[in-house]
Amino acid sequence: MASFAERLATAVRQKGTPTLVGIDPRFEQLPPSLQTDSSLAGQAAAFEKFSCELIDAIADLVAVIKPQAAFYEQLGPLGMAALAKTVSYAREKGLLVILDCKRGDIGSTAEAYAKAYLGDVSAWGADCLTVSPYLGDDSLTPFVDQCTATDSGIFVLVKTSNPGSGTLQDLSIDGKTIYRRMAEHVESLAAATKAPGQQYGAVGAVVGATYPEQLSELREVMPSAWLLVPGFGSQGGGPKDVAAAFDADGLGGLINNSRGLNFAFAKEPYKSTYGAARWQDASAAATRDMIAALAAETTAGRLA
Amino acid sequence: MASFAERLATAVRQKGTPTLVGIDPRFEQLPPSLQTDSSLAGQAAAFEKFSCELIDAIADLVAVIKPQAAFYEQLGPLGMAALAKTVSYAREKGLLVILDCKRGDIGSTAEAYAKAYLGDVSAWGADCLTVSPYLGDDSLTPFVDQCTATDSGIFVLVKTSNPGSGTLQDLSIDGKTIYRRMAEHVESLAAATKAPGQQYGAVGAVVGATYPEQLSELREVMPSAWLLVPGFGSQGGGPKDVAAAFDADGLGGLINNSRGLNFAFAKEPYKSTYGAARWQDASAAATRDMIAALAAETTAGRLA
């Protein structure tokens, strides 16, 4: 199998867009037709149906999805089964899956997480994971090793999109911020995991669209790392904010939108045109609009 | 219901020990009688049996257990079902459960994690979670709110036990380390979540036994926070290394041992006395020995 970075580049080129569809099921925001049974089992069944129908709606449009584990975990083991089904269904449809679970632990425990989630041989079978780096450099090693062994990838939290991300990440030591130090470490891991002739390695970074200046700085610091950029849409980031994520060919950045695409049916202009009865069409239309906006205002326009 | 900190203090006093039994099932290290079926379903059944029998073996000896989610997650949704059973079984036996899953995310996603795991109303029903703080202060708020709403608790990673914990946590800004800054924030959250007349709040800190000097420093910085101290036993920490975790009454510290208690049957002196056939007795004996060692060399001796 090709490396994760190669598969990602190929898939993004093929679909012609860096749009990443996040899947964040929230029971009370689902279309009313899916809110019929609020028991844990009923909610889990609704999450599975919602996730799979959303995948059907956007599978021809984008290359990658990012299910957010937290929402499925909220429903206990039944929710986890819905998450597993979501991952396998997306992969059957030819999509790459980044599981957003921000795991991180020491030594052999990190290894257990890596083996749990990464690659075809794992129980969850994701292509890629998000990973939290508070425990230090050695806590990332088992994930990187598993990426190499299974042609999978990770995105390490570097500069997150939330208002309080600065309390730790922006602290500066000898003129260098924590997020920049973390970025330099990610770059070293990315460079070390490049397949021959490739621009990007198996290790990428999460950098929020809500901090455009830092995004620009971090694109320079990490020339070998794919950037996963959350914060587009509901959190306030727009196409111009994320333009710095891409290289000259329109590669190197994945722009995530979750709520804005998941629940498009509840907001104009999609609400009037489609409404809850045609929520899948609303999600597809909102995805198309995001693809067009990114193509118009960033180098992603060169992918098509 | 009493607050988590009150329930914890009561339970630790009642059992007379701060020993925390970690549950880290690893299929290849289980007693051979539990290694009969290596399919995912077979491994999940073995994890459930191992976890529940271990709980039976130590329920009369200690107040708290700490299942490590990573090992159960490795088995996919079936493993998560075994984890849920482990949590509910331990609580039926009157034990407090700290679920070690080091979750952390932004805003409403952190809220989903908090609602997933904390308190009787949650799908998982744990008393307490471990939480990773890389995303910043605001990422902890939803967990703290849920602690207050459900009389549950969290332990925030401050100074972890792994060799590489220093790469981020020991960085120093204006003479103050990251772990110390984090500790000061934990102390503010702990102080703000104290029940009337209590010494400790709902927010505690993870501080590794492998760094005794930092443990001593951090006990002073966080007078309102319970400390969860991993790294005892297999990772090299001994009773003298963890003595600083406790207050004068022997409270305020929980000393975790996982592998050393889980797989005691495979090591002397328990191997000769009990062996794999009586692995539960080996775990109980190793737990008793740890309790005695802590009582002899720390203020935990005053609990009895």
Describe the structure.
With 304 residues, chain A is an alpha/beta fold. Chain A has helices at 4-15, 40-58, 69-73, 76-92, 107-117, 137-150, 166-169, 178-192, 212-221, 239-242, 259-262, 270-273, 279-297, and strands at residues 19-23, 64-67, 96-103, 128-131, 153-159, 172-173, 176-177, 203-207, 227-229, 253-257. The first copy, chain A, is globular, with a radius of gyration of 18 Å. At the A-B interface, helix 3, helix 4, helix 5, helix 6 and helix 7 of A face helix 3, helix 4, helix 5, helix 6 and helix 7 of B.
Could you provide a short overview of the structure?
Chain A has 304 residues and is of the alpha/beta class. Chain A has helices at residues 4-15, 40-58, 69-73, 76-92, 107-117, 137-150, 166-169, 178-192, 212-221, 239-242, 259-262, 270-273, 279-297, and strands spanning 19-23, 64-67, 96-103, 128-131, 153-159, 172-173, 176-177, 203-207, 227-229, 253-257.
Write the layout of secondary structure elements.
Two copies of one chain form a homodimer.
Chain A: H1 4-15, E1 19-23, H2 40-58, E2 64-67, H3 69-73, H4 76-92, E3 96-103, H5 107-117, E4 128-131, H6 137-150, E5 153-159, H7 166-169, E6 172-173, E7 176-177, H8 178-192, E8 203-207, H9 212-221, E9 227-229, H10 239-242, E10 253-257, H11 259-262, H12 270-273, H13 279-297
